[in-house]
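Hi everyone,

Forwarding the result from last night's run.
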Amino acid sequence: MISVDPIWQLVVLLITHWVGDFVFQTTWMAIGKSHRLDALTVHVLTYSVILSGAAILIFGTTEVAAAFVGCNAVLHFFTDFLTSKASAALHARQNMRGFYIVLGFDQLLHHIALAATLAWFTAV
């Protein structure tokens, strides 16, 4: 369990999010998740495995870490389900400004989800 200020716990989660959402996302996942549930599911499972390492460090117990990761997996799935469809449509139309706005909004939603669930699970 990391016994540091909550801001540093959030920083750890944001770094872990970047690794799980971008570094370990393959091209197949990135392109496929907008129209294939298997690609989206594999992406979210990969992300969740990466996130679980940080969750165990932060929460210390497997039960709380598992609940935190499960909650974030569901939130990540539904966020990407919607935003990947929107960004893919914008990219297909070569609307790169719109594409990047949606991509940034997607990341904002993920960051809010991580911050809110961190606050919730550390308060419980």
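The mean pLDDT is 95.

Cheers,
N.
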